[in-house]
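User: Run a structure prediction on this.
Assistant: Running it now.
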Amino acid sequence: MARTTHDRIARAEADRFRADVIALLNIERPDWEDWEWRWLTDEARRQPDYLYSEKEQAVLERLIACAKSFGAYAGYTVPEMIAIACPHCADLTEEEQEFIEKLHATGATELKRRQLQRLAAICRRYQEIERDPLNDAAVQDAA
């Protein structure tokens, strides 16, 4: 009886894990690194009876934290931060310039954690923007 209960609990945890993975694969405007996308895809393809490890759970928790969207950082909204960065596009690297131009063109109002932190780092070059300890710490804790 105890083994059956343990098996049911483990199965339920695996089902929740798989559901979280599938939800992450389907989020709007993901910013996954290539390895993260492959990892999520591989985890979603596991056999139904597969039981996920603690290390896999830790990676999933980090990705869940990175997938959260925010509309503001350190008192500045995303559109305000884009407006700070846009006039300086010519001073940015090509990659940074493409990033800012894409945000501006899409009218972004919310960004994933890493995107927001990247935007804030660019904006800090041109305006004093404090670090948002809650947002920065949450990503570092999950990493």
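Residues 34 and 97 are 21 Å apart (CA to CA).
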